Structure formats: C-alpha cells, structure tokens
Amino acid sequence: MNHIYLEALIKNRVFLVRNIEYSTLRDFLIQENVFPMSQIEVVDSKLHRTAQIRELIDILPRRSDKQFVLFLQCLSYSEQKHIADNIAKCVYKLIEANKPKLSINEYKRINESISNLTLTEAPSYPTENVDENHYEIAFSPQEETQSESSFLFEENEPSYENGEDSNPTVSYLSYYKMSSEPKGLFFIINNDTFKDCSLNRNGSKKDVSDLMTLFSDLNFVRDKKENLNAMDMKLALWGFSQMTLLGKADCCVVVLLTHGKNINQLLGVDGNVVHLDDLLAYFNSENCPALVGKPKLFIIQACRDDIKTQSYHQAAIRSDVVIAYSTSPGHVSHRDPQEGSVFIQEIVSVFSECSKHMSITDMLIKVRGNIKQKYPNVSQYPITEFALEKSWYLNPTLH
To answer: Which residues form the CARD domain (predicted)?
Structure first.
C-alpha cells in the first residue's frame, strides 16, 4: 500500500475505531472484494465492534492501493460517507505535504483515485452475466476431471497508465467439500437428570428434539446419548470419534448439553467433571485420522460462571474446528423449562433459516447478534472459537 494511504490510516486510527459500524460495512467489503473471506472471518471472530475495526485497520495496509480506495467507497455505500470524506481530506493534505517527494504520475494517480469517490449509494450488481475479464477460475488438470473442485479466484488488477506495476493482489476463496452422503455425522450428549436432583436441567429435552430434527433436515446421520456419568461421557465420545462412517462423511457436529463447573469443565450426571480439552483431543489428527482436513463443529451448552477453581487448560493445536460456547467465561446460560435454552433454540432457528446461503461462521455470528437483540436484559454472551482454514457452507450448491 502507498505510504500516503498508510499514513492517513495511522493519523485517523482513533477516529475510525470510534466511528465505523462494521455490521453495515461488512457485506460491501465482501461484495467489492476488498478482503478475502479468510480475513473477513478473522475480523468476524473478534468479540466486540472496536476489536473488529482494529483488526480491519491492521490488515488493510496489506492490501493494494485499489483495495484502499474500494474500502473508502464501501464506507460511502454503507451510509458512512462522512468517514470516507474525512479520510479523503486527510489524503489530500498528505499529498500536498509530500508533493515534492512524489513523482508526477504518482501524484496524479493518488489525486484522481480519491477525487473519484463521489458515489453515495451502492450500485446494483447483476447476479448473472458477470464480466469474465474480472475473475478467472483456475483449475489444475486433475481438478477439471473431479466433481468436487476447490476454487481459486484471481482478481486481475489493471496496470496504471504510467506503466508502473500495479502490484495485483490475489484472493483465495476456498471451501470445504460438502457433498458426501450423508453430509456429516451428528452426535449429542444430553445430561438433564442428575444424581443431585437440584441440578436437573428441565427443558433440555426440547433442545435435543429440535436439534435432532434440524440435522436430519440437513442430511446428517444422528445419534444421541443421555444422562451419562463423567467416565461414560468420555467413552461415548471416544467411540464416536472412532466410527468408520466418519471416513465417508465430509464433516461432523458434536453437541454437549450439561452443566459447567468452570470455563473448561463439564459435569456428568454423577457430579464428576470431564475436561473439555480431553474430549476435543479425541478428534485431533492423531486420534481421529478420518476427520483430518474436515470441518468439525462443537456446540457447548453449559454455564461457565464458577471460575473460583483454577481452570485446567491444555494448549492444544487445533485445525478445521469451530467451538461454539453458549456463554462467555464468568456467565451463566439461560434455559426455559418449557421452551429450552436460549442459545440452542437460536441456533436451531438461524441454521434452519440461513444454512442455504450463509456459512457456519456467519450463522454463529448471527446467533450471537440475535440473542443480544432479543434478550437485552439477559447476561449471556455466546462466544465462538474459529480455527477453520476454509469457508464452511452446509449447502453444497454454493461451491
């Protein structure tokens, strides 16, 4: 990125962090290919708006001059033109201040690129007849003969009129294959009847029923276990991780519905605990080679409010994994005795409605946003850990 643009970002960093609304900007950034999806997902994984904007500003300098200008254009499209105008004014001042150091062509190019930022409404884009000169789809000879191919989109940026190298940026949009029959395996452990009756989790059976229906509709082979003690939870998950059918499926989903003793411990019905990292380790490359390179979603519905006990945490190296927690450390998870838990019911609703056109990561972000909007007085903040290397869509027709 040109040093003028970089300096403008640095000088306006606090202003940008305080004022940019990422939720309205995000779709335009994707539409205009300002960032590849892998970088968008990194931004999405941040828990707060300010953290998302800081990440956005930190990765923008790695993009080309064209992407910087498109970034300002996207601000205008998303009704944040006042922010784009502020940056443009700063660029103009920096151009004049650095005019003696700039070549005539560089001065002209920067000046013209910023002066063209006049649109205030997003243009309409056709869904068909895309300009074939703008994108190339590149396949290796072997991939052309396969039914499931990974996609490589390469954006061809034109050179500037002065003949200087435009430093084209290549964006890689790759997706996990999701075309197996069945699509994946779904396994759920539901502990709702405990040895200590005061711990019983009324309403959890509705969560189980709704999840089983959801993943049946999504073409998953399903299995469930209920009311297991701590040792049996380990045995059940180990047995699931060793199923030969995992080798034929493109993904797996594991759901654990129980109580949490602290941020990393789950209760069996006998009151004993299992460590979450121990359970996740059953699905790593060493213990579960059938799932190497395949995406895995773990949904944890459990409180994480008792943090007096020192948390056991193993720094495990994970890949192709998403872990969706119903709440953040230090908070409880809310459950209605008749309607089920807030988190699981919102997952069922969003996945049922959006799985045909949204990625797993986008749907989980939507779940969090919906809970915040629908239950403003509920102190529950779902968080998700992403360790995906590709975009994960449950709908195979998207890729």
So the answer is: 1-90
Spatial distance between the Cα atoms of 229 and 231, rounded to a whole number of angstroms = 6
- Are 276 and 232 in contact, with CB atoms under 8 Å apart? no
Question: Which residue ranges form the domains of the chain, and what is each CATH number?
Answer: 3-117 (1.10.533.10), 184-387 (3.40.50.1460)
Q: Beta-strand (E) ranges in 258-358?
A: 260-262, 265-267, 273-275, 296-301, 321-325, 335-336, 340-341
Cis peptide before 329 (omega within 30 of 0): no
Report the DSSP pairing between strands 252-257 and 296-301: parallel
Distance between CA atoms of residues 7 and 26, nearest Å: 23
Model confidence over 5-62: pLDDT tens digits?
Answer: 888 888 888 899 999 999 989 999 998 889 998 889 889 988 888 889 988 988 888 8
Q: What CA–CA distance (Å, rounded) separates 349 from 353?
A: 6
CA-wise closest residue to 391 among 363, 369, 352: 363
What is d(CA 298, CA 279) in angstroms, rounded to the nearest whole number? Answer: 10
Number of C-beta neighbours around residue 169 at 10 A: 17
Catalytic residue among 90, 251, 288, 303: 303
303 is annotated as an active-site residue: yes
How is residue 280 written in tokens? 């996740």
74 in catalytic set: no
Structure-token pair, residue 180: 């197996």
Of the residues 259, 288, 331, 399, which is catalytic?
Answer: 259
The alpha carbon of residue 63 and the mean position of all alpha carbons in its chain are separated, in whole angstroms, by 21
pLDDT at 387: 86
Q: Residue 374 is encoded by which pair of tokens?
A: 């629908």
Q: What residue has token string 């008749």?
A: 338
How far apart (Å, rounded) are the C-alpha atoms in residues 52 and 46? 5
Please tell me whether residue 171 adopts helix, strand or coil conformation.
coil
Mean pLDDT of 269-277: 91
Average pLDDT, the chain: 78
Q: Give the number of other CB atoms < 10 A from CB of residue 243.
A: 17
Report the C-alpha gap between 66 and 70 in whole angstroms. 6
Global pTM reads: 0.55
Structure tokens at 97: 């201040």
pLDDT the model gives residue 117: 58
Give the DSSP letter of residue 380: -
Backbone angles phi, psi at 365, to 5 degrees: -65, -40
